[in-house]
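Aim 2, interim progress: modelling of the S-adenosylmethionine-bound target.
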Amino acid sequence: MTPADYDFLRGLLKERSGLDLSADKQYLVESRLVPLARRVGLSGIPDLVLKMKGGAAALITDVVEAMTTNETFFFRDKVPFDHLNGTMLPALLPARAARRSLRIWSAASSTGQEPYSIAMCLKEKAAELAGWRIEIVATDLSQEVLEKSRAGIYSQFEVQRGLPIQLLVKYFTQKGELWQINADIRAMVQHRQLNLLQDFSQLGKFDIIFCRNVLIYFDLATKLSIFERLAKVMEPDGMLMLGAAETVVGVTDAFRPYPDRRGLYQPNPTRGARPLLGGVQPALKIVAAR
Ligand SMILES: C[S@@+](CC[C@H](N)C(=O)[O-])C[C@H]1O[C@@H](n2cnc3c(N)ncnc32)[C@H](O)[C@@H]1O
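Predicted structure of the complex, ligand included:
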């Protein structure tokens, strides 16, 4: 790959998905895109870039998807689900008792292990939540991971990563060598394709947002833009759960850390009108990819 091809791909990925590749990630691009080029009958990355410059929209979508990292597993990192069961639900269920509804968003939900882990936590409280309307919205940029998530079918390896055996037995059905999460849990999760760089105000307001292990791929200005917009779709007493390597600290004061709960944040009621990164305007010009 020539330096010019790499620069073109970096620019395109930043614009389409927010992925902020440093100057030394050629190996990553090659490891993901050479197999893709071969699959579509092209000789390599130079050919791929040529086709993309010619405006091959479907190919551009494939390239953007191939460059996403979809690593996930059930009850990933454990702590967020301890916070869900031990802090978020105990605070929010009494607060929502009058309207008996709860809206949860798994932003960047990948192949579904995160939203389904949330759904199982709520299903475990079925008696307490009888008559409640529970909405779990799972979104991701990648159509491919969303398809897998909708199907809810996982390999033996995937169900062995993080999922307690009692929950496997209770909520999954074995299909040959695979396991499918049961229809009642699948029905708790609505899937939608959504790029976090784009406007998501149409999703409505949420009580809980899990936005984990996706912001790490973005630059500061993109993180800031996403935090500002997440704050706008969150109820004033809502809660935001970030990934272990992610924080709002030093990026925005739209959220403030929840005391003694690592990775958990709430909208900041006392924030000023201005974001902390005064003057930085994220480049959010999106060219329609699909
Ligand atoms: C590493 S996975 C995280 C999955 C899950 N949240 C977890 O923590 O286990 C990151 C996901 O972010 C998605 N993603 C990347 N860029 C995105 C964007 N601009 N908008 C929405 N999703 C994006 C990828 O497709 C991928 O499925």
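Residues 278-290 have pLDDT under 50 and may be disordered. The beta strands are 101-107, 133-140, 153-155, 172-175, 178-181, 189-193, 206-211, 234-242, 255-257, 264-267.
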